Every structure is written in structure tokens, then in C-alpha cells.
Structure to design on (456 residues):
């Protein structure tokens, strides 16, 4: 059957829900239209941008009757800024939509008829929650400025005066960096032309310690007075660690080797009563307070008695493993980033934890070797990136056959497909799953899930 709509057609639609990823979902005689910028309960006019056999995509051109769940967005840069998608949707509606998305993924992709889903844990702070912001520089007629990419645009940056996801301190540091760049008459890098100098600014704030790390990313070469740059940042007593990285490639990345310009190599953050050193390129959950809730949940689901061998796969700087080590016999962590593993090893020492070991490696390639050293794991915690347990890692996890797997997921669709394979091919049952909202106003949702395997 041909799709009932055509590209560029104007439709009037009622949005009933939010799909994972953030688009509204509307139906035209049963045919699904994903509506960008449509919120549940809205009656909208929308222009069709793409047509496929089973669904179409459309962009809202006018909200004819706003949803009762719409609220005023406090941020002056919303919705032009690409950082937030739902500041104008009541927070209760945001979390309700995320809970439905996890349930839907487990049913539709995971093939589970009645997912054992527990109520979503809402965020404790809906603004000012991020501990890390990555800004881009852009050139205006009168000098460089700093901001975020515009929504849906990789080639345009919006100047930001006040971001509601960071703190007053975070905003003050960014704005002071803009003044510095202008006073020094530096030129922002132009991605299309590959000319200019200033590329990115990364500001990371240990929210439980008050310590701040700043990383400037430029094109190649030392074209600024590093001493003056350090003096400007030291106006903020919270700044403890100042790094500079050169990006000589066209790729827009910030994950680069750094030169330490001043202060400590790393800053400290505290999570669940432990201290964690964080280097510029190491992974740290970006919502400190909700990371603590996430880890408490992982600890509860791991159900440790003190006798277990635990694997912490995709361990980052060792957060989950070290929090679990207090209740386990031994913990063995694997992580691909050497910088993160260096932090994990330091963090074990910093906290006087002697029953945890961490190794650099790819999970898929190194779990077999780890098992030879450690013996059979009783509990395996996995916390993979959005792509989930890609290919080999999923098979290796299944073959390990640990009685309990705690899966910390930042993408319900890959969680659901991994749960399906672990169920159908390796005999695991999904026993509990609890979504956690770490990122209000964005489409992201975390889930902590427990899988158990019948003794064979
Ligand atoms: C979502 S983070 C979780 C980190 C940590 N568990 C935490 O809560 O802070 C995923 C981590 O997996 C690492 N990673 C990505 N692919 C990997 C792979 N194939 N093998 C091992 N680690 C990987 C990333 O470097 C990152 O630190």
C-alpha cells in the first residue's frame, strides 16, 4: 500500500506521544507521522519532510492548539539552541514519556509481553544539573564568541549568554572566556573553511567538591599567551586544572591529548561517599546527583553479599566497580580508554580499595582473558555506550553465563535488542528494569536492568 502522504504536503495532526529520540508521534488513519517539535497533546500544522513505506516525518509549521502540558521555557536561547529539546513540555510529561519509551522498546524490540518495568526515577534537579559542558567557538563580525550548535545544525553556532543546564559558575567561566578571546583578538575556527584558531571550550565541574577543570581546544600551534590565559581562569578560585589541546584534524572532537597549562592533572568528584579523580578525557556521568541514584540502583540490583566475583565491563574511571567493591570479594574492570583506566587505578588507591583491579581493553576481545585470571564471575555489570553490547561483546557476555547481569543502559532500543538475544540464545530472563532520568529537557533516558539466568 502506498504511503497516504507526499513530501512537502501540509497536514493538520494531533500528536499523541513522544518517540524515543524526541519526535512527536501522530497518526493519520493509522499511518504514523513523526512530528519534529510536536509535543503530546498538541494540534499542529506540519510539513512532510520525508516519506517512507510505513511512516513519514514532518516538521511543525504552526501549533494550532497547544497541548495542556506545554509550559513556558525559561531559557532565552530555547528552542534555537540544540542543547535542550523539551524545555516547553512540563517535566512530569517528559518523565512519563520516557517511561513509556522504555516499556515500548522492551515490548517491541525486546519481544517481552509484560516488561517488569518499575516507575521511572525522576531527576532531582531539572535545571543546572550538568557537570560538563562542551562549547564551540564561532566568529561574529566583531570578534569570536562561544556557544552551542543550533538545533539540527552542525555548521552554525549560537552565542550563549546563560545556559540553564550549567551552574552560575559554569556560565561565568564561559562568558569570561569569551571576553578573553575578544580582548586577545583571537579568531574562531571555521569548520567549513578549516581556517581560524579557537575551536572548543570544555568546562567540567566536580559538583560535590567544587573543583573545576577547563580545557581549551584550538587548531595547531601556540598562538595565545598561555600565562595570561591561566591568569584569567585563576580569577575563579574553583578552577584547579587548566588544559590545552591542539586539534590539527578537520574532525570536531575534544577527546585529544592535552598539555597541562596549570594546576592538577585531574580534578576530584565525590560519588556515593567515594572520591574519584577525573582527567580531561575520562568518562564521567554528566549529572552527578543522578549518577549517584543510578549507581545506588545498580548496587541494589547486584544484590551482593561480600562473597562475589564481580565484573565491571565498560568501567570508565571505576565508579560502579569501586562502589560495589565494598560488598564484593573481588571486582574486575575493563575499559577501552587508557586515560579512564589510569583514573580507575588511581581511584582504587585514593579510596584504599584493594580488592578491585582494572584493565585497558575492548570488552569483546578481553573478557575471555579476564575470566582466565579471575575465575567465573557471579555478577557482571555492563554499562556500554549507546550502541549497546555490539556483536562480539554480547556473545562473550552470553558465554560467560554469570547468574546475574546488571545492565546499565543509556539507550532503551539497544538494551531491548541485547536483552532479546541474551534471553533467546543464552537463557537469561529480564527480572527488573527501572528507568532513570539523568537528562531533563533532552530525549535521553537511562535504564538499570537485572537479568538472571537459571542454573543450567
Ligand atoms: C556509558 S560509559 C560508562 C562508564 C562507567 N561505567 C561510568 O558509569 O562512569 C561507557 C564506557 O565504555 C567505554 N567503552 C566504549 N566502547 C568500549 C569497548 N568496546 N570496550 C571497553 N570499553 C568501551 C567508554 O570509553 C566509556 O568509558
Amino acid at each position: 500500500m502506498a504511503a497516504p502522504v507526499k513530501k512537502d504536503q501540509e497536514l493538520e495532526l494531533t500528536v499523541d506521544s513522544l518517540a524515543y529520540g524526541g519526535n512527536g508521534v501522530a497518526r493519520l488513519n493509522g499511518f504514523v507521522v513523526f512530528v519534529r517539535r510536536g509535543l503530546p497533546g498538541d494540534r499542529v500544522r506540519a510539513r512532510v519532510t520525508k516519506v517512507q513505506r510505513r511512516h513519514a516525518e514532518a516538521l511543525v509549521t504552526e501549533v494550532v492548539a497547544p497541548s495542556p502540558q506545554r509550559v513556558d521555557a525559561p531559557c532565552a536561547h530555547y528552542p534555537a539552541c540544540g542543547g535542550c529539546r523539551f524545555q516547553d513540555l512540563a517535566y512530569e510529561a517528559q518523565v512519563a514519556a520516557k517511561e513509556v519509551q522504555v516499556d515500548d522498546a522492551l515490548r517491541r524490540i525486546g519481544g517481552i509481553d509484560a516488561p517488569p518495568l518499575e516507575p521511572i526515577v525522576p531527576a532531582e534537579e531539572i535545571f543546572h544539573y550538568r557537570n560538563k559542558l562542551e562549547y564551540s567557538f564561532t566568529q561574529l563580525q566583531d570578534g569570536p564568541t562561544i556557544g552551542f550548535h543550533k538545533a539540527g545544525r552542525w555548521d552554525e553556532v549560537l552565542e550563549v549568554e546563560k545556559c540553564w543546564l550549567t551552574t552560575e559558575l559554569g556560565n561565568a567561566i564561559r562568558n569570561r572566556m569569551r571576553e578573553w578571546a575578544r580582548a586577545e583578538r583571537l579568531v574562531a575556527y571555521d569548520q567549513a573553511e578549516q581556517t581560524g584558531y579557537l575551536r572548543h571550550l570544555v568546562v567540567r565541574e566536580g559538583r560535590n567538591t567544587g573543583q573545576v577543570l577547563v580545557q581549551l581546544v584550538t587548531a595547531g600551534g601556540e598562538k595565545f599567551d598561555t600565562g595570561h590565559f591561566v591568569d584569567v581562569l585563576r580569577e575563579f578560585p574553583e578552577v584547579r586544572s587548566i588544559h590545552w589541546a591542539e586539534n590539527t584534524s578537520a574532525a570536531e572532537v575534544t577527546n585529544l591529548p592535552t598539555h597541562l597549562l596549570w594546576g592538577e592533572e585531574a580534578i576530584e568528584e565525590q560519588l556515593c561517599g567515594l572520591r574519584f579523580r577525573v582527567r580531561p578525557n575520562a568518562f564521567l556521568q554528566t549529572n552527578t546527583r543522578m549518577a549517584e541514584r543510578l549507581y545506588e540502583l545498580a548496587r541494589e540490583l547486584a544484590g551482593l553479599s561480600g562473597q562475589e566475583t564481580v565484573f565491571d565491563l565498560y568501567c570508565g574511571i571505576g565508579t560502579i566497580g569501586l562502589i560495589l567493591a565494598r560488598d564484593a570479594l573481588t571486582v574486575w574492570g575493563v575499559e577501552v580508554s587508557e586515560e579512564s583506566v589510569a583514573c580507575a587505578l588511581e581511584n582504587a588507591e585514593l579510596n584504599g580499595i584493594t580488592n578491585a583491579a582494572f584493565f585497558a581493553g575492548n570488552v569483546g576481545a578481553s573478557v575471555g582473558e579476564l575470566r582466565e585470571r579471575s575465575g567465573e564471575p557471579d555478577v557482571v555489570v555492563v554499562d556500554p555506550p549507546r550502541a549497546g553490547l555490539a556483536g562480539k561483546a554480547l556473545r562473550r557476555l552470553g558465554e560467560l553465563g554469570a547468574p546475574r547481569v546488571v545492565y546499565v543502559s543509556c539507550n532503551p532500543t539497544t538494551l531491548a535488542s541485547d536483552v532479546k538475544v541474551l534471553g533467546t540464545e543464552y537463557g537469561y530472563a529480564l527480572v527488573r528494569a527501572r528507568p532513570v532520568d539523568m537528562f531533563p529537557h533532552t530525549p535521553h533516558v537511562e535504564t538499570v536492568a537485572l537479568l538472571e539466568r537459571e542454573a543450567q
